[in-house]
Design brief:
By secondary structure, this protein is of the alpha/beta class. It has helices at about 5-15, 20-25, 50-55, 60-70, 85-100, 105, 110-115, 140-145, 155-165, 170-175, 205-220, 230-240, 245-250, 280-290, 325-330, 355-360, 370-380, 395-405, and strands at about 30, 40, 45-50, 260-275, 295-310, 315, 340-345, 350-355, 385-390, 410-415, 430. Mean pLDDT is about 80; it is low at about 185-195.
Length: about 450
């Protein structure tokens, strides 16, 4: 099969949607005999080994497997696990299972992986329909390819790595040739040359990729298509760390009382004089109806300006939300250029630099109440605020009444399963995190 840019984009768009970001991410395709299999760089350049493609990539399903394998690595954060041989095998096991099952139609149920890897031993972990029964890898393989079954706990990539360290002799790992690039250093067995990887992708690009994949899986398969439910949960849990809150929604809650780098787009009407009637004013229309042709028309136009404002974002850091904080901080990462500070609350409010929050610096008193948020809003004379919380806290009625009296507008974003927040519902919108991310 001859690979070119048009074919790569067509394969991706057919699977993920005609207007998908992933479908247009690859911008250049070229042969490279020095590339062991294939790789994609952060600027969208795809390189492939002609001998490898000529032997194994014979259909669009094979090509989908190849391209998606590379694009999926940053979705699961696999670069953070290092570029060791066992780490690479574990990462590829998770990726290949996701492509084979969650994108079964587009990938031909992992057609490329079935061609490239033997159906037994450690190679069998990297493909569907392997013969793993009664082998030392049986249980690990079953955790990802047990169609329709749910284990008590799904395995993360890190846990797969630890399991392989127990199960795998060194000689087995050396024998595995991997697809794509693995880490930023040169290496053998399918690793890319120095600097050739997707490690440098921006948070914005990762977020757009994650949204594409999320929509595609939900649209094409749904949650009950017969594949491993553990894999489905692992896949969506990985995507959550790259999604972000919609900025268009946040713009409605920007406040002048807090100055960050958040830019709110403002539309305003203006009048410009021109001899041509592009959008004539009412005065011009009256003159024209009276048979009088104006020397100059006062055309109406809409101007667009941006105003630097801020977002008063209150993040729940009480003990009950600890397990959700990595997901929430991942969602907030896309705002790192817009926000200078965040308000963390438990039963008191602490303002912290936004960059320190992204580095994991969280201060908490472990209790929870919403009273501290109301008092903080009053002290800072805020007219708008955004609250991210699991919703398990209380607010004194007199403070709720004062918020309403001051006409404070709030958006409460719930995570962790609770469906309502009666404390803040009278003051603004209460939404679920998944409904305001993209």
């Amino acid at each position: 099969m001859k690979i070119n840019l048009d074919i790569v984009r067509s394969v991706l768009r057919n699977a993920l949607g005609r207007d998908s970001f992933v479908g247009s991410f690859v911008k250049r395709v070229e042969e490279d005999p020095n590339c062991a299999t294939a790789c994609i760089t952060a600027d969208g350049r795809m390189q492939y080994a002609p001998k490898f493609v000529g032997r194994y990539v014979t259909s669009e399903e094979d090509l989908f497997c190849l391209v998606m394998h590379e694009l999926m690595h940053p979705m699961f954060g696999h670069f953070v696990h290092g570029a060791g041989e066992l780490e690479n095998v574990a990462a590829d096991m998770v990726i290949n299972a996701s492509i084979s099952q969650l994108f079964a139609r587009a990938s031909g149920e992992g057609s490329l992986f079935k061609k490239f890897y033997e159906p037994h031993g450690i190679h069998g972990l990297l493909r569907p329909m392997s013969r793993m029964r009664d082998s030392r890898y049986d249980s690990l393989y079953d955790a990802f390819y047990s169609y329709g079954r749910r284990h008590d706990k799904w395995l993360s990539t890190g846990e797969v790595i630890q399991t392989l360290k127990v199960l795998t002799p060194t000689v087995d790992v050396h024998a595995v040739v991997l697809l794509g690039s693995h880490g930023a250093t040169g290496g053998k067995d399918g690793e890319a040359s120095a600097g050739v990887s997707l490690q440098g992708l921006s948070a914005e690009d990762l977020g757009r990729m994650a949204e594409d994949l999320k929509k595609a899986v939900k649209r094409n398969l749904g949650p009950n298509a017969g594949y491993s439910m553990n894999l489905y949960e692992l896949f969506f849990d990985a995507l959550k760390t790259h999604l972000s809150i919609k900025k268009a929604l946040l713009q409605k809650f920007a406040t002048r009382q807090k100055v960050d780098n958040f830019r709110n787009t403002m539309h305003h009407a203006r009048v410009c004089v021109s001899p041509i009637p592009i959008h004539p004013s009412k005065r011009d229309l009256v003159l024209l109806s009276a048979g009088i042709v104006p020397f100059h028309y006062r055309n109406r136009a809409t101007g667009v300006t941006t105003k630097k404002q801020g977002l008063a974002v209150y993040l729940d850091v009480s003990g009950s939300v600890n397990e959700h904080l990595p997901e929430i901080i991942g969602v907030l990462q896309s705002l790192r250029t817009d926000l200078t500070t965040m308000f963390l609350f438990s039963n008191q409010v602490v303002e912290v630099p936004f960059h320190s929050l992204l580095q994991g610096a969280v201060k908490t008193t472990y209790g929870t109440d919403f009273n501290c948020i109301a008092n903080s809003i009053f002290e800072r004379a805020l007219d708008k605020a955004v609250v991210l919380t699991d919703g398990y806290a209380c607010l004194k009625p007199e403070l709720q009444d004062e918020l309403k009296r001051r006409k404070v507008r709030m958006m409460t974003v719930l995570f962790g399963g609770k469906q309502d927040c009666p404390e803040f519902e009278p003051i603004g919108d209460v939404v679920q995190l998944e409904d305001v991310t993209h």
